[in-house]
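Aim 2 progress update. The chain analyzed this quarter is reproduced below.
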Amino acid sequence: MTISAMKIRSIITLLLLLYCFAATAQRCGSCNTRTSHYRFKLLKRYGLKVDTNLVKTNGVFLGKYTTSLQTEYFFIRFFSNGRYYSSCHYASLPTDSAVLNDLRWGYYGYYKIDSNMLTVESHTSAGGYYYAYYTIGDNELISKYTNSRAKGSGNILQPTPNISCKFYPCQLRSQSFW
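Predicted structure tokens:
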């Protein structure tokens, strides 16, 4: 094989690898795949407290999480029956309808609203059950605190980075199934 043929082969291989990476960049691989057998307590304790004027159900809230190494994107969906879904983190902004309607990879839970404070109860495979607290602004959510539901963890609120999630109206077909 000549040097020019080897260069062309290397370039084709590199382009093929880049295409494969780009095609799978929207997939997330480290999220919950469990969709049932949860033991959520939020709605059992407080009942359904949902105001769809404050938290819209006809779209998603898009968020961006930036570290010193990378930027990751995610979306949050709310349902009128008090259920909540947060996606895994993506390499690019997830605005494709197929991605926004695919609820198989992410975190499931319930939510309630008191005044302008949104409380979410969710579950992660790594951290178990937890509560997250957001303030509700004009078409946005701002994360404030989290705390674990585990016994012995106390009721200590851990501050979170102020991540702002902006509302993005879109066509949603999928329904909550947990």
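The chain has one domain: 31-169. Helices lie at 3-24, 42-46, 97-100. These observations will guide the mutagenesis experiments scheduled for the next reporting period.
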